Amino acid sequence: MLSVSNLDVRYGQFRAVQGVSMEIAKGDIVSLIGANGAGKSTLLRAIAGALPIHSGRLLFKQQEITNTSSSRRVQQGLSLVPEGRRLFSDMTVEENLLLGSTVKRSGDWNIERIFSTFPNLVKRRHAETGNLSGGEQQATAIGRALMSNPDFLILDEVSLGLSPLVVDQVYDSMESLKDAGTTILLVEQDLERAMRFSKRTICMLEGRVVLDKLTSDTNKEEITQAYFGLHPSSKQEAS
Ligand SMILES: Nc1ncnc2c1ncn2[C@@H]1O[C@H](COP(=O)(O)OP(=O)(O)OP(=O)(O)O)[C@@H](O)[C@H]1O
Fold it and tell me: What are the residue boundaries of the ABC transporter domain, all occurrences included (predicted)?
């Protein structure tokens, strides 16, 4: 579904993402982890078209998207839930959701299905999102992305600022996305949660991928070592 080849993304001279390659297949559920500043958000934003790419290539469903606009990528089926949710706070839940369908792709997602997937939003349908709890805002942000009927959903820091109980609710709701066969790439700081949810774990360190394994083929210790650059292959890669 997505092929990332030798990707470099820079802020001025600074290489925030360096030589990153990965293949993500249809139906993959991938957690991207790494310390603050490892380059996770930069990579996600570059894949979504929110940041320009310095060098390397991106293919989505076998089509070159390296230089296409973010709106074109949404039309092709790639949708990002950005860190911080970026909702329109003086618009209602329903209005925010409808904005997500500005790019209308055919598929099963519609406003009623969003409300049945996120039942905590039903009562808040006509409330302005600025007055919602963090969990309700996150559900709205995910729902808005789903309204475009994406084949590939990218989620940046789903849990940020939410209580553990609310994070559980958001992840429970996302189980139905897995069942629907949606391909998901997400950034999650909570390693145990990431490992429970995803089939594959990718760890970044200083702009590079230092571990990319099926979650069933790795363990917490190995990922933690990669996270801190203690894994033998991470030292080699990062040097
Ligand atoms: N707009 C920017 N201008 C300059 N440097 C930036 C910018 N955004 C991020 N960076 C730098 O790029 C590097 C990667 O940042 P990025 O936000 O991608 O990391 P991250 O892994 O998502 O971290 P976090 O978990 O803190 O969000 C960091 O060193 C960061 O300081």
Answer: 2-231
Q: Report the alpha-carbon distance of residue 96 to residue 102 in Å, rounded.
A: 11
The ipTM estimated for the assembled molecules is: 0.96
Q: Which CATH number fits domain 2-238: 3.40.50.1980, 3.40.430.10, 3.40.630.30, 3.40.50.300?
A: 3.40.50.300
Q: What spatial distance separates the first Cα and last Cα of the chain, rounded to whole Å?
A: 30
Nearest CA to ligand 1 atom 28: 37
What pTM was computed for the model? 0.90
Q: What's the CA-to-centroid distance between 207 and ligand 1, angstroms?
A: 9
Q: How far is the CA of 82 from the centre of ligand 1 (A)?
A: 14
Cβ count near 119 (within 10 Å): 11
Q: Give the H/E segment covering residue 132.
A: none
- Whole-angstrom distance, CA of residue 130 vs CA of residue 128: 5
Mutation choice for ligand 1 from 7, 8, 10, 11, CB with most ligand atoms inside 8 A = 11
Q: How many CB atoms lie within 10 A of CB 200?
A: 20
